[in-house]
Amino acid sequence: MAPQALMDTMFGTRYHTEGAQLQLPRKVPMRVEPKSFFANERTFLSWCSMATTMGGVSSAMVGLTFSRSGGTEGRVVSTTTVDMISAVYVPLAIMMVLYALFMFTSRSTFMRKKQVGFFDDKVGPITLAGITLITLVAITLMAFIDVLA
């Protein structure tokens, strides 16, 4: 599938959106409000902030697993569980940043070209939220297994 066809399918255009056949073609270029560029940037920074928080939590967990004496006494969660948590959270944070970058550039391109399309994304946030939920449930289960074992 060509990149433009993929973008048309994902974001919707006159040819790939339900009910678009009923719309008359535009004779005047689409007007883009200046605040739209700032809203796009604000959304991008919000996604990056969340990804940085997840990466920071992962790094902090790895750093806090080491005790001063080097032993494992006094720990509730094993180092293996913490290593697995960080191994899951870091790629998830990277994936969030890549998604935010892709959406930011695609929306900026739409606005710069004054291209008609929908700027909402129905798949990305739900997918990332689902993956985050699955990882949080898995982490909770691993922690309970460590506590009970």
UniProtKB/TrEMBL annotation:
InterPro entries associated with the record: DUF202, VTC_Complex_Subunit
This protein's UniProt keywords: Membrane, Transmembrane, Transmembrane helix
Domain DUF202 positions: 36-107
Compartments reported by the entry: Endomembrane system
Listed GO CC annotations: endomembrane system
Principal location listed in the UniProt entry: membrane
Transmembrane feature ranges: 44-66, 86-105, 126-145
Topology versus the membrane: Multi-pass membrane protein
Source domain of life: Eukaryota
Protein name in UniProt: Vacuolar transport chaperone
Organism: Raphidocelis subcapitata
